[in-house]
Amino acid sequence: MRGDQAMVDTATWLLSAESHAALTRWVRPDLSEFPDYAHQFISLEWGGKREHATWFSDAEAAKPGHRTHPHGTHSGVSLASRSDEDAQIIRDTVAGALADAGEAGFGDYLLMYLALAGPEDAADAWEQAVALDDAAIDNGNTRAAMLAFIAAQMG
After folding, report:
1. What's the total number of domains in the chain?
2. The domain containing residue 119 runs over which residues?
3. The model scores a pTM over 0.85
4. Is residue 46 classed as helix, strand or coil in its secondary structure?
């Protein structure tokens, strides 16, 4: 509702909490206390157990795919890389996942996530997204939304 500052404040707080949780729990968690965990990304967390898996698919693309969508305008601010290390984590995560994205889906969301690594990565994601087969775009997404998101990250 326009003019409702309490609603604006609540929405801002909720989105901030969601973004913080995504970064610290799944997308770029501090894994320094878990040297045997071989991944940079947490796809499932069950209480105190962290896994590189999903409950619905063994495909590598499904692991980051279900944690990085849907992408809204807030994702560019909340999940974008803030350092060279963050950008490399995004690149590594996407590179490992894109190999089976055609089979598992999530290729569109992974390209949107790649765009968050930086403008050059966004340009690369754009080229791949333009060439992406229509069948590879999730039913909850559109080519226009995917390209608009990627374009917004290009600078």
Report:
1. 1
2. 5-153
3. no
4. strand
